[in-house]
Amino acid sequence: MYFWNSYPFVRFTIALIMGILCYDHFPSIWAQYQWKVISGILLLSVLIYFSRKYSFYKLRHFNGLLALLIISFLGGYFTMIKYHQQEKNHYLNTNKEVSGFIGIITSPVNERTNHHRYNFKLLQVIDENDSIIPTSGIIHLYIKKDSSTQSLLYGDKLAVYGKYHPVPGPDNPFEFNYKQYLERQNIYAHAFVDHDQFKVVSNEPPSRFFQWAYDLRTASSEVIDKYIQQPRENGIAKALLLGIKDHLDNDVKRAYSSAGAMHVLAVSGLHVGIIYLIVQLLFGKLKQTGRLGKYAFGIISILLIWLYATVTGLSPSVLRASTMFSLVAFSQASAREGNIYNTLGFAAFILLCVDPYLIYSVGFQLSFAAVIGIVYLQPKLYRLLSFRIVLFDKAWAITCVSIAAQLATFPLSAYYFHQFPTYFLVSNLLVIPAASILLIGGMSMLLIESILPALAKIIGYCLAKLMWGINELIGLVHFFPNSLIEWIFLDQVGLFLTYGIVLTFIAGFHFRSFKTLTISSSLFILFLFWNLTTHQNQSRRHELVFYEVSDKTAIDYIQGHSADLYIDGFNDSDLELLAFQINPHRLASHLDPIEYSISNLDSDTSNSAIKATSIGDKKIIIFDSTTYHIDFHQFITADLVIINNQAVKSLEWLKKHFQAELVIIGNKNPGYYSRKMKQQAAELNLNIHSLKEDGALTIDLKNGIKKERTITPALFTTNPD
């Protein structure tokens, strides 16, 4: 108990997180019973007050427990207020048909492949009677790109002619839940419009400060365009200096990811930490001049950190890192320096109070895990070896930082990204010093461009050459043998067990506790048992999986640890999209990626309208075009019937000529047709499943059990910043 006395905000943050997670799983406690809970807490407070007044020693720990209980309750309450209590005029509560809407752009442009995407704050909607109804809430607005499309500005007020639609959820097992990801940002709908479907009415920025920040980032981007013109180096400079990743090509992303250097291209704690180190080098001596000097150092540090955050457009990852380092600077400037873990706990506490669902953000989790790992492990690793040569000593220090960060973040990286960069030590020896030079040089170029453009041009030229060299070296590491270990699957149980093993192992050595090391060994055995059980369960699977993919019939035939994917009309150009939709399920099932097991869905008949095939012991009939003109001379029996391209006009006709256990409405049908067929099936008492409406379908061939939409929610959802 006394161990925790030095870390109050670590305790408070854990309690706050528990409240947030409890709200997500038991929202009724806050929605229906909040006054009962509040009354109970008040009653406990009164009891503890009297226990202290009359010195009941046995109740001495209840004060702390009550405080943690109150903070947990507040965590759930903050979550409910921010995300689950929309205003009465929120667009989720609009029941009328919408023909148009009016609102304001509240974010800079995010360039997608075919669209410009904006956060769009709704002000009014126009219903089918042309009535204007005040509304609120934020949607994603996608504007189709063409040669005449120009980026809109923060604060532009638009009148849009069209509809917004709910963001669809995942349709295939283990597919990324983009709907949940957006809901945790209070975004529930999106709209796709052409450039002729909207009109700019005016410019009314909701925040002058954010407008200034975005204008500053735009001006900085234009300076980079002026002095670093090579496309690859230009994209990297914008990503590294400003956090604009729209111009990074896929080859660069793959190379940096394989080399374990992708964090350099995402403005976050590393970059803010470099800024803070620069401030330490330039103004660190102020701390030695007394209390006023410490205050001056703290003020300068915080101002420069937030100036950099403003230049980067105040992205969420930079806001987190800036808050964290600002608190570190404040603690160093105060009369007494706080415990670094308590400072980190305080930073997390503030961030989660403002935005409770940051706990689900991958960036938030990785940032704090990496910093805690570096703070605790790096000094211990660094003391293992000593070098007299300064260059070797600095290289060893960077290596220790890389090892500490990887140990702290590997379980999360495996859980979210399913890969491990083998040569991360080599690449980080290159990119961390290079990132420091590029950041210093880049900021210098932006600052002096208006005063000494000739010098800014020279700096830009040098930066471009340095980035070219770093890119070539990163590309070389990328092509090393086995540079990236891929296809790693870690589920939630495995994630917590892995962290349990690591933490108890480190604690066992730190406290020289044999009991703690025994717990670590037991967790490792449990981890092996869990994986063995998972593999045994997989070996017993005998299933057909019908995926919801665009305009294709895609069927996975799974037999234990092997699988074959059958697709009609497969082209190589379809591979990337199919892999995105199907490979998450393959990975979670410990199967090979689809690239190694694709077969065309062949037919046993010569009729182009009807295909007949067998997969496993299931006979499948596929209708691909209109069949009313075909004369069937006998009743046909099959296990499954798949209807594509609205080939069957009436299920009554189908029931007359065919008998099947299940009718599947395929992916090649519009939504209204699926709904029409489902209505007919209900009237005819037919068993039916629509892939578009109901999502992927799994049929257990061993037990004959049909399982609907096997979407597995994750405790932590991927939330890239």
TrEMBL record:
InterPro entries reported in the protein's UniProt record: ComEC_N (IPR004477), Competence_DNA_uptake (IPR052159), DUF4131 (IPR025405)
Keyword Zinc (UniProt): no
Pfam (any one): DUF4131
Subcellular locations according to the entry: Cell membrane
GO CC annotation terms, alphabetical: plasma membrane
Residue ranges of domain ComEC/Rec2-related protein in the record: 240-507
Spans through the membrane: 6-26, 62-81, 263-283, 295-319, 340-360, 395-417, 423-446, 487-509, 516-533
Domain named DUF4131: residues: 34-195
Membrane topology recorded in Swiss-Prot or TrEMBL: Multi-pass membrane protein
Keyword Transmembrane recorded: yes
Keywords, ordered alphabetically: Cell membrane, Membrane, Transmembrane, Transmembrane helix
Main location: membrane
Annotated NCBIfam families: ComEC_N-term
Protein's UniProt name: Competence protein ComEC
